[in-house]
Amino acid sequence: MHIVFHKSFKKEYKKLQTEIQNRFDERLKVFINDSNATILNIHSLQGKWKGYKSFNVSGDMRAIYKQDYKVVVFVSIGSHSELYR
Q: Phi-psi region for residue 50, left (φ > 0), alpha (ψ -120 to 50) or beta?
């Protein structure tokens, strides 16, 4: 699996508190080892994010990505209300 971070994701990630960044980093390791791990609560999205998926980083934080074959592109990270408004 090849992981790519879109420039918008990188920008949003830098703005997060260190604790949330660390939590994402931990969840990313889980994702790489088992992309179906139930702890991630991966689900397909609808509306403006149709064709994308997200996983839970912590409580209200979500990471949005798109996967094509063996390439995963993370495009956004933020709270539920920030991402799905």
A: beta
Residue 30 pLDDT greater than 90, yes or no = yes
DSSP 26-84: HHHHHHHH-TT-GGG--EE--GGGTT-EEEEEETTEEEEEEEETTEEEEEEEEEHHHH-
Q: Which CATH superfamily is domain 2-83 in?
A: RelE-like (3.30.2310.20)
Cβ atoms of 9 and 77 closer than 8 Å? yes
Return the domain boundaries, the chain.
Answer: 2-83
Query: Which pTM does this prediction carry?
Result: 0.91
